[in-house]
Structure formats: C-alpha cells, structure tokens
Specification:
- The protein is of the alpha/beta class.
- It contains 21 helices and 15 strands.
- The chain has helices at residues 16-22, 41-47, 52-63, 69-79, 113-117, 120-130, 146-155, 174-181, 197-208, 211-219, 232-251, 271-281, 298-305, 330-338, 340-353, 360-369, 377-391, 397-413, 431-439, 448-457, 484-491, and strands spanning 3-5, 31-33, 92-96, 99-103, 136-142, 161-168, 188-194, 222-225, 261-266, 286-293, 307-309, 355-357, 370-374, 419-423, 478-480.
- A six-stranded mixed sheet has the order 3-4-14-9-10-13, sandwiched between helices.
- The longest helix is centred in the middle third of the chain and has 20 residues, at 232-251.
- The chain is globular and about 60 Å long.
- The chain binds pyridoxal-5'-phosphate (PLP).
- Pyridoxal-5'-phosphate binds at residues 111-113, 146, 266-272, 321-322, 398, 424-425.
- Pyridoxal-5'-phosphate is lined by residues 111-113, 146, 266-272, 321-322, 398, 424-425.
Length: 494
C-alpha cells in the first residue's frame, strides 16, 4: 500500500512509515492511500470474536503494509491495554431506544484523542527504524489544553522520541494545567508561556521553520516532528472503532449481518467523522453520517450549501474542542469525492480568499453520505439535563451536541436505523458545565466540580482525573514567548 498527496496527480510512492514520519506532503496536501482496502462480510464477522487490540491490528494491517502483523499486534496490545483503557477501549452503551453511545474516552486522558495518540507514537517509533532514521524525534506541541495532555500521555516513555509541550499560562483551565504539570515520564517536558494560545502556536511554528535550530538539533542527534491531527498515523487508528461498533451491534443482536446503522459525530477537524467514511468505504454497513457542530457551524453550512466560508465570527463555547474554523481533514473527503485537481483548486481558494464552493456533482455525492446539524449552547445544556433525567445517561458537552443533532436528524428524516453517537469526552473532563447543566447551579470551583458532580450523580470520577490536586507537580517553568527556543535547547542540552 502506497500513499500520495491529496493535491497531486502523481502516482502514490510513499510507504506508511514515510508518511507517518513526515506528517504533511511537500505540496501542503494531506497523505491518502492510493486505494481503499476492503473487508469481506466473512472477515468482518470473524472480527466479532476478537478483542479490541486484535480488531485494531487487523484493520491497521490493511493500511500499514510495511509493518508486520506481529508488530502491529504488539503495539495495539500495549496501546489499548485494560490498565490504560478501564472498561474497554470503545464500549458501546445503549442510551435509549436505538441510540447508542460509542464511548471513546476510557483512555489515560479521558478524551477521544487517546484513541489515536496511544498508538501513533509507537507507529512513529517503528517508522524511524524502518526509514533508517538514526536521530531521535523531538515532538513540539502548542496546546490550548486537551491535545497537549493526550500527546504527553501518548509519547511518554516511547523509544526514540521526546516531547515538549507549550501552553498559555492563563489560557487553559485549572484542571488542564494540573493534568499537564503533574505529567510523568522520562522523555517529557512541559513549559507554560506568558501569552495566549496563538503566541504558543506561532512560537512553535517559528521554531519548526528555523534552520539554525534544526542544525543545533541535528548536532545533538535530534530532529523536529509534530503530533498533528492530520497525520495519517492519527487517522488510521480511528477507523477501528467504527468496525468495532458494528461488531458489538452484531454481537448484542441489535443489528443483523449487513444491516445498516447510522453514525453521528461531534466534529471539529473532520478527522473522526472522516474515519467513519473510510470504514463505510471499506465495507462496514454504515448508512448515513451526521456531522454535528456547535455554534461554530461552518461545516453545517458547507454540507447544506457546498460553500465553505471561514470569513465569519468565531465563538467560544462549552464544547471547546469543536471551536474551529478550519476543518483540515475535510480536504481528504474532497480528494475522494472530487479528485486531486479540484481539491488543489479549492484549497488554493481557501488560502487566498478564505472561501470555496464545490461543484454541484461533488455536493450531491457528499450529501448522499453526510448531513450537517448544529446545536447551540442552550440546547447543549438542555440535552445534558434531559439525557440524564430521562435516561440516566451522563453526557459531556461535546457528546450532547451530537445527541441533539442526531435527534434533529431523526425528526427531520424519520430514518429509524440504529444510531451510533460518538461520545468524545468523559463528562468529568468538562465537569463545570456538566454540573451546571444537570443541577442548574454553579459548582464551588472548577476543581470542586468533579467531586460535586460525582456526589450528585453517584458516578465515579475516571482515574485520569481523580486526585489531581494531590499529585506531585513536576513542571513549573513559565517563560516569555521569546524564550521558547532557548527552553527547547536547554531541554536537549544543546
Ligand atoms: C478533538 C475533539 C473533537 C473533534 O474531533 P475531530 O476529529 O477534530 O473532528 C470532539 N470532541 C472532543 C472532546 C475532542 O477532543
């Protein structure tokens, strides 16, 4: 299996190891496989008997053909170990009637980024060996909270890799700050900067583009790499849980072989929902895909009109992981629907004018598979409240956006096939707003909200978030944004 850029018509020539190491194609496009492998009905049925790590290894082996099955299985067994994913990697829980919650937050940071970030560092580590790279990869991350912690946990103690995370000192929540400051591991570093998230991100970009820095790293046996969500190594592992959800529906008798189910995904960067599309193209009987957004509803507009227009107001919502105006992974869907030439033209227009419109044929093809719905702040809170009161299911803010969107879709279309809703964060990750939605009252403080939510709902705080206040703080450094490069060099003792 070889890979190519979404923007290039040249034949595919990159191995999986190369694309995982490189991240982004040289022409600015994203890497895609030359063709999509498929699952026969028999193969899918055989997967039903397997554990999640085995399902994962079998799915990945279709794409990462330069990795042996034994390598993939060993990595998946470590990544999705029951000690890290308490209660299973991606359990499917019935919410009510034929609405199911696919809980993707049982991992070490209580959010769905773990599903990819627990496995991708291991794939990168092997990619370095496979491509003859002798240096150590130094991953730099700028974070507004969640991604940084998930990356730290994913790269922690992985061979041939080190990671350094920068976050804005006053730009993350108290819980997020504690999560990062108490990080453990022999190859991790965390540094707060005086400035906002953009300062942190720009600082990292400048360091990545600095030839002198690259030379200094090289002398010490390092090179820069990123943990970006557009890396194929993060996307491929996300296909697995859609395959797994189908197996679990079959195993529990909720679906018959080949019977369709729909999925509804709370979407930001379009990575998670694009993985559902790939699963469908590979033969998983997914019917319709519902793309759920919050007030930042750029994708809803795109799916309804064919025009993607980022010239609009940006809102801060209680589902912050979906507060996004550029959905990078949408480019991969454009490629599979319209081809590389049109994709390159659309991306060019987006860069120049912040807007593009796809042609009627492309829009029709997309709408056959996808519908867009968005949920405002009021309805998000109401959905958390109702879902808990009526069905005893506690949903986080992102999950609630999707539950509301799924309901709107069913009401509008009457489509009554089983609905799998991606639950992307533990309610405790956003305990503040969840507590407020459930009780109608403010918690005593952001940190207290966890205990208070636990008491009120009689549910347990997941292990990654319990006892945060009493953990040992390992990282206290705060630097000016102008000192970020210096901090990096100090870390590798250059
Ligand atoms: C990242 C994230 C999302 C959005 O996922 P995409 O792949 O970017 O669409 C949704 N919910 C949570 C909790 C997230 O962390």
């Amino acid at each position: 299996m070889f890979y190519k850029s979404t923007r290039s018509s040249e034949p595919a020539k990159f191995s999986a190891a190369q694309v995982i190491k490189q991240g982004l194609a040289e022409d600015g496009g994203l890497f895609v496989p030359a063709s999509l492998p498929t699952f026969s009905a028999d193969e899918l049925q055989a997967l039903c008997k397997d554990t999640y790590p085995v399902r994962a290894a079998k799915v990945l082996s279709k794409f990462l053909t330069d990795y042996t099955y034994e390598e993939l299985l060993a990595d998946c067994q470590e990544a999705y170990d029951e000690k890290s994913f308490v209660g299973g990697a991606a359990p499917l829980v019935n919410v009510h009637d034929n609405f199911y919650s696919l809980e993707l937050w049982h991992g070490p940071t209580a959010a769905f980024k773990d599903m990819a970030l627990q496995i991708m560092p291991r794939l990168l580590s092997r990619a370095l060996v496979k491509t003859g790279e002798e240096r150590t990869a130094l991953i730099l991350v700028a974070t507004s909270g969640d991604t940084g912690k998930a990356a730290l946990e994913g790269y922690r103690d992985v061979d041939r890799v080190k990671i350094m995370v920068f976050y804005p000192v006053d730009g993350v929540s108290h819980v997020q700050k504690l999560q990062m400051a108490t990080q453990t591991g022999s190859n991790v570093n965390v540094c707060a900067i005086r400035g906002n998230f953009d300062d942190a991100q720009n600082g990292v970009k400048v360091i990545f583009g600095d030839a002198e820095m690259a030379e200094k790293l090289n002398e010490k046996g390092y090179f820069f790499s990123s943990a970006n969500s557009i890396n194929w190594g993060r996307l491929a592992p996300q296909i697995v849980y859609y395959v797994s959800a189908y197996c679990d529906l079959l195993n529990s008798g909720k679906c018959k072989v080949g019977e369709n189910f729909n999925v509804c995904v709370p979407t930001g960067n379009f990575g998670n929902i694009f993985a559902a599309y790939l699963a469908k193209e590979m033969g998983v009987p997914i019917g319709h895909m519902i793309c759920a957004s919050n007030t930042n509803n750029i994708l809803t507009d795109f799916l309804r009109t064919g025009t993607y227009d980022r010239n609009r107001e940006f809102y801060l919502t209680m589902s912050p992981s979906m507060d996004i105006l550029i959905s990078s992974n949408l480019e991969r869907l454009l490629y599979f629907t319209a081809g590389s030439e049109k994709t390159a033209a659309y991306m060019d227009a987006l860069k120049k004018n912040g807007v593009y419109s796809v042609d009627a044929d492309t829009l029709e093809k997309i709408q056959k598979n996808f519908s867009g719905y968005f949920t405002n702040e009021d309805d998000t809170a109401k959905t958390i409240h109702e879902t808990y009161e009526k069905y005893g299911y506690l949903a986080d803010t992102h999950t609630a956006v999707a539950i509301h969107a799924a309901k709107a879709y069913v009401e509008e279309t009457g489509d009554s096939r089983p609905m799998v809703i991606d639950s992307t964060a533990s309610p405790y990750k956003f305990a503040n707003n969840v507590y407020r939605a459930v009780t109608g009252k403010d918690p005593s403080s952001e940190l207290e909200a966890l205990d208070e939510l636990s008491r009120v709902t009689n549910t347990e705080i997941p292990y990654p978030l319990s006892g945060l206040a009493t953990r040992k703080v390992n990282f206290e450094a705060v630097v000016d944004r102008t000192e970020m490069a210096k901090a990096v060099l100090e870390y590798i003792q250059a």
